[in-house]
Amino acid sequence: MTPPRLTLRLHPADNVAVAVADLIPGAPAGEGVVARQVIAKGHKVALVAIAAEAPIIKYSQIIGFATQPIAAGEHVHTHNCAMRDVERDYAFGSDLRAPAPVPEAERATFQGIRRADGRVGTRNYVAVLTTVNCSASVARMIAEQFRGDALAGFPNVDGVIALTHGAGCGADHQTDDVPMIRRAIAGYARHPNVAAALIVGLGCEVNQLGGLVVAEDLREGDRLRTMNIQETGGTRATVAEGAARVRAMLPMANDVTRTTESASHLTLALQCGGSDGFSGISANPSLGAAADLLVAHGGTAILSETPEIYGAEHLLTRRAVTRAIGEALVERVRWWQGYTAARGARLNGNPSPGNKAGGLTTILEKSLGAAAKGGTTNLMGVFHYAEPITTKGFVFMDSPGYDPCSVTGQVASGATVVCFTTGRGSVFGCKPVPSLKLATNSDVYRRMTEDMDINCGAVIDDGVSVAAMGRRIFERVLAVASGERSKSEALGIGDAEFVPWQVGATL
After folding, report:
1. Residue 288, domain extent
2. Which of 80, 284, 319, 345 sits at 20 to 30 Å (Cα–Cα) from 491?
């Protein structure tokens, strides 16, 4: 029998391979090289001698530079590889592909919830939102009135959720903070997964309730109510009045029926967290294949986490359908370079300790793997944080790499399903949107099986193709969009993950 492979070389141009099993000294590392030391699964081994200051190549791209001579068979990681500035050729639009849409009559379908404005949801919640942290406790108290059997008479309502946050005051009106938090709140209030919403303010905050309603063109009515604690008479009075308003919304919220809808109505958030050395090999490219399928079926896929495409943005600009779209992405990357530098931080402060323990060495390496979530189709637009997505196909939304904050922006922009790849093991959930967890390796899938929805480790262990795994993900997305519960939903996770981005100083 052929012995199992112990390493994986991702491209003929690479001078490192990835260990797919723990290597001991003397173990074959590929290309006639043997490991010189213990090298953990997911970490890199040099396939040739690499001189000091020479580039380290993975995915046929530079991921760093040797800080000392590295012998063939040696472990390549933070002790001997560091990031340097690298010139990138943005080559705007050079990799454009002719679209290959599935004919409308042949498109995949799911059982969705059609709203009056024609949008289609995947869940049916009533949301209690807040303008400011000061009204967070009251919002939670209102939602708690609907625990247990309180919704027994409303079987089509998935729940009453309090979406609270830590911002809304202590900010300068001249910064981006107030507009961004308003976009996030409004995006959730009118989200197709939200049947009705109640927004609770305090009354004296920077993010005034009246200003929010005007700035975001929100219209009060049967599906949207607002109230301020100071005007209503304090905590007890507001909780009582808020609960009464939610009860009045429930019959209308319950009056829905799932209908057969085209996959073109789905918007998929592409996300990763707790990445490891296998993320860019298994789960991320497989999710990219699923995103390509969704785009072919007329849907939308949102890639985000700008600090985690840094160093790989040139692969996306080459897919931009216009130069302006490509330049908009570059502008966002440059904004992040200035933003971090002004605060004494570095974009290479990411990867996290967990990422490094999993085998990722530099942000360049992490970004090249993370960008694979975006698949291969043309880049149709670049959007600001929590800005409504107004185009179909593959798009990019600017956000931090911090997962809850990034997903909050994607959901506010219109995402109705989240796919979240993880190699170290994330327990992320995201009400009012279902979140699917994709394990990059079989070890984390087995260890955290109650949290993981799909084992993409089969790409490495069982020889499942990326295309086949992408098809599995796509079909699971359709099933979950139709009402099947994800693992995080079964565990009840998702009440604490509404985290709008705060950019400026807290005053």
Report:
1. 268-490
2. 284
Q: Closest Cα partner for 393 from 329, 271, 323, 303?
A: 303
pLDDT tens digit string along 399-455?
A: 999 999 999 999 999 999 999 999 999 999 999 999 999 999 999 999 999 999 999
Q: Supply 81's token pair.
A: 């590889």
Encoded amino acid at 7, one letter: T
Looking up tokens 């009400």, which residue turns up? 431
C-alpha distances out from residue 46 to 7, 36, 70, 80, Å: 11, 10, 7, 11
* % of the chain surpassing 90 pLDDT: 94
Cα–Cα–Cα angle for 231, 232, 237, nearest 5°? 150
- Rounded CA-CA distance 344/451 in Å is 36
3-state secondary structure of 436: strand
Residues 135 and 32 occupy one common structural domain? no
- pTM value is 0.96
Which pair of tokens denotes residue 275?
Answer: 């990445």
On whether the CB atoms of residues 167 and 177 are closer than 8 A, the answer is: yes
The 10s digit of each residue's pLDDT in 2-42 is 667 899 999 999 999 999 999 999 999 999 999 999 999 99
Query: From CA 206, how far away is CA 394, in angstroms rounded?
Result: 35
Report if residue 180 sits inside a domain. yes
CATH number of 18's domain: 2.30.130.110
Residue type, 218: L
Environment class of residue 149 by beta-carbon count within 10 Å: exposed (0-12), middle (13-18) or buried (19+)? exposed
pLDDT given for residue 492 in this prediction: 96
Residue 240 shares a structural domain with residue 281: no
Instruction: Show the tokens assigned to 485.
Output: 């519960």
Number of domains observed in the structure of the chain: 3
Q: Which of 52, 45, 87, 48 is nearest to 66 (CA)?
A: 52
